[in-house]
Amino acid sequence: MNAFDKMIARQSAIFSRLCIGLDTELSKIPEHLHGLESPILAFNQQIIDATSEYASAYKINTAFYEQYGLSGWEALKQTIEMIPNEIFTIADAKRADIGNTSAAYARAVFDDLNCDAITVNPYMGYDSLAPFLEREDRMVIVLALTSNPGSSDFQRLISDGKPMYQHVIETVLSWKRNASIGFVIGATHPEELALIRQYASDAVLLIPGIGAQGGDIDAIMKANGNGPVFINVSRGIQYAGAGEQFGEKAHEAAKFYKERIGYTA
Amino acid sequence: MNAFDKMIARQSAIFSRLCIGLDTELSKIPEHLHGLESPILAFNQQIIDATSEYASAYKINTAFYEQYGLSGWEALKQTIEMIPNEIFTIADAKRADIGNTSAAYARAVFDDLNCDAITVNPYMGYDSLAPFLEREDRMVIVLALTSNPGSSDFQRLISDGKPMYQHVIETVLSWKRNASIGFVIGATHPEELALIRQYASDAVLLIPGIGAQGGDIDAIMKANGNGPVFINVSRGIQYAGAGEQFGEKAHEAAKFYKERIGYTA
Fold first, then answer.
1. Residue B164 and residue A167: Cβ atoms within 8 Å?
2. Is A222 labeled as catalytic in the residue annotation?
3. For B153, which of A101, A125, A152 is closest by C-beta distance?
């Protein structure tokens, strides 16, 4: 089964296109977990238990684990191991480097961490992504138009009548590859999303920026049409509750977002 | 002392602008070290001992350590700790993400790993680099025109009569910041380097691509003029020798490159 088929199998089994971010920070974990040996793992285990029935994917941002050094890297690996096999896993790592170096990153994320997908940065061009693109059982999700304010600094520069992010999408789609392919499009850009679906109708889109970042779900789902998507919510689910009831609150929030996003085959 | 002053102090003390890459891979370490508890650390310690008198900086590419998982991350941290304090350290990590996430990467590289500088990717714009740029005792080195073939895919797209990489350099130099600033320019582009020095005469440039990647030292040093630079060599020093004499061979290669690069105050 390739990564795209795994995505669709999971989404159609639970009628959900919700992706849940596991961007765990010690300062945001409820107090009653702080005495445990690994508060991060205890928190993540309860979040996964509470939300997995609605999760088509979990997205783990490597930064939040790397900030804790060795113990963080260990928690990252163990968190990925906790996730049930049928649920899609995305390492939100935004990597890319020259070819022989990207090959090392591909081994780190696909072989050591064993994630189904990785997010990558297109700035360094084809050979920087080739080691990821050659993996037929994985998905490579390329940054295109991100959700943050800085997305207008370079991604929207116009060249030959088209914004940079459109060059990225069209060029990446023209490259030979074995991996499934996807793009990151921020939920803060529904008008651009509708245009992107005109030239990338079948590409998987990973859409973050719902909730804490202000993206509008209805506008996004309308602009996306029937294209394959993961709609990501991180803080809005992980930190829906702050006290001992955080698991229940996360469960309710995941159910809410799954239903608001909706599902069409 | 800010990071730029640390760079200049080291370079003027040893008359060297050589930066040595520590991109260690188990498959390239001499056989006689493989029985040890940590072949990577034993190798790196000997490379550092053999080359430190010529090293204005060491550049550690995080990918090569991440590929070994937990033990790799531990070796990364311990390698940085081995480097004498007066030598500049660059985490070649090519990170960047939305603001709160980049803040976690800044903590990982500046606080946990305690490097003087980090390489970052500009694609996501200002707020993705702000958490790095606010650190007054560190240096932020932004990818501009990289050494690899894929650098022509997006970095050279023309917008408003200028290539993308020029937009990146000029825009980043216009941003407010506390950190020292630098740019990555591949040694494979001497003509463009001469042009870049016309509008970024004082910026620090980190120039990789000498040796294994085919960059020409003389052409690069002429194009650079008197601008502040780190000229990086990785494989050409680390793997100059393959057997028990690898330390001596690395010493000779570092001396060779230091002298070929030359030094002007």
1. no
2. no
3. A125
Q: In B, residues 180-209, which contact A (CB 8 Å cutoff)?
A: none
Torsion of CA A101, A106, A108, A109, to 10 degrees: 140
- Sort strands B139-145 and B18-21 into parallel, antiparallel or unpaired: unpaired
Show the tokens assigned to A136.
């037929």
CA dist A220 → A164, A229, B130 (Å): 21, 11, 28
Using DSSP's 3-state secondary structure scheme, residue B136 falls into coil
- Beta strands, E only, chain B: 18-21, 57-61, 88-95, 117-120, 139-145, 158-159, 162-163, 180-185, 204-207, 229-233
What chain A holds in terms of domains, given with CATH numbers, is 3-261 (3.20.20.70)
Written as six digits, the tokens of B77 are 């941290």
Q: How far apart are CA A95 and CA B131, in angstroms?
A: 18
Residues B89-136: tens digit of each pLDDT = 999 999 999 999 999 999 999 999 999 999 999 999 999 999 999 999
Give the model confidence (pLDDT) of A51-77 as tens digits.
999 999 999 999 999 999 999 999 999
Q: Are A125 and B96 in contact (CB under 8 A)?
A: no
Q: What is the DSSP letter of A149?
A: G
A183 CB neighbours in chain B (<8 A) are: none
Determine the distance in angstroms separating the CA of B232 from the nearest CA of chain A, rounded to an integer: 14
At which residue do the structure tokens 């030292």 appear? Answer: B217
Q: Say what the pTM is.
A: 0.97
Percent helix / strand / coil, chain A, rounded to 5: 50, 20, 30
